[in-house]
Amino acid sequence: MTQVVSEIRKVATTWTWWLVLAAMAVYSGGFAAFTVLASTLERSPLQLGSPETVVVAYNVAIAVAYVFPLAMGVVVVTNEYRSKLIAQTLLANPSRWSVYGAKTVTGLGLGLLYSVVATAVCVGAGAGLLALLGEPAYLTSAPVIGSLLGTVVALSLWGLIGVGVGALVRNQVVAVVGVLVLTQFVEPMARSVVLGLSDSDVSWVLPGGAGDAAAGGTLYSMMNGVSADSQLPGFLMLGAYALVFCALGAWRFTRYEAA
Questions:
Q1: Torsion (CA) 43, 49, 53, 54 in degrees, nearest 10
Q2: DSSP per-residue letters across 39-74
Q3: Which terminus, N or C, of the chain has the lesser number of Cβ atoms within 10 Å?
Q4: Which UniProt keywords apply (predicted)?
């Protein structure tokens, strides 16, 4: 517990965590508002007239902003390598498993914080606009509640994945740029290729697709005609990615020299 408190303090004493959180909230909330407004346009392909469709405005964070908790998970590990303070941490606590475990708990906690805030902002923006437009928000319906819970869990797992990636790469600039390129360019193209080549929806085998599926379907899913019935496989797949990256990160963190 002492090591966990130490890791949390390392994050909390910088501006990075709340600047990233603010950026995620604004980005997610803006997309949620845009989704609702776009659905009101004539000939819009978006129709938010049921609980199963309105969720795409509420869980938009998992579709467009999962890179934020992922990047913060990376920062939890790489900050000490960048500042050359990792040696001091390991001198104070020689148990590398304890240090790495505390970093995974911190990354998961940050992911949970980011997911709750971003989801709340999306719900506030989306439901608020729907109310102004005189449309039902369906906030108490089972599909919406299930989707919101799925979004929170999936975004939390992205923070955990980020810790594993940070431990593997160590170089903060390379790691952050790498996750940006992979999540914003490489995987979206890969998912489009998979959807184009396959007669059934198997995009949930990719990390971003698994997150979308875990949330019960997102705006990306709706626009590409992907079914929203793979929530459990999405959870399992994203959880498997988190376990694999955390295990690989633990191997690297405990095996190699600190600097």
A1: 110
A2: HTSTT-S----SHHHHHHHHSHHHHH-THHHHHHHH
A3: N
A4: Membrane, Transmembrane, Transmembrane helix
Look up residue 103 and give its two tokens.
């970093």
CA distance 139 to 128: 11
Tell me how crowded residue 243 is: count the other CB atoms within 10 A of its CB.
Answer: 14
Q: Which residue has the higher pLDDT, 90 or 120?
A: 120
Residue pLDDT, tens place only, 7-27: 888 888 888 899 999 999 999
Q: What is the mean pLDDT of residues 130-149?
A: 91
State whether residue 183 is helix, strand or coil: helix
Domain range list for the chain? 2-254
For residue 238, give every residue at least 6 positions away whose Cβ sits within 8 Å of its Cβ, in sequence order, or none. Answer: 154, 157, 207, 210, 211, 214
Q: Look up residue 102 and give its two tokens.
A: 């505390």
